[in-house]
Amino acid sequence: MNWTQVCEKEALPEGAGVAAWLGSRPVAIFNLGHRGLYALDNRCPATGVSLLARGQVCELAGELYVCSPLYKQHFHLTTGECLEDTELNAIPIAVKADAAGVWLAGEGA
User: Fold this and answer.
1) Distance, CA of 106 to chain centre
2) Mind listing the pLDDT tens digit for each residue in 6-52?
3) What are the backbone dihedrals phi and psi of residue 87, each rounded to the nearest 5 degrees, phi first?
């Protein structure tokens, strides 16, 4: 798997989503502190608009979701599955952090 560094870990405020670019692909990265880092394609599957990083992270039935700020669909942070509509899934992206920064799986440039 190819990994691309997208930012320093300090650039990700805890409890918030941040938009980043993985090459020409918009990505939403969520820093949930001790619960870990999560990343999804930033494009809302319903509209194609890059806004999932602006969504509210919540816990439903013990699972972590981000709620799209536009149509309020909930996307699972690990699988990308939409709670309200199985046809509208966000694409999950592997993410990791180390002393050098935050890394996403996939091609940059």
Assistant:
1) 14
2) 998 888 989 889 999 999 999 999 999 999 999 999 999 988 999 99
3) -85, -15
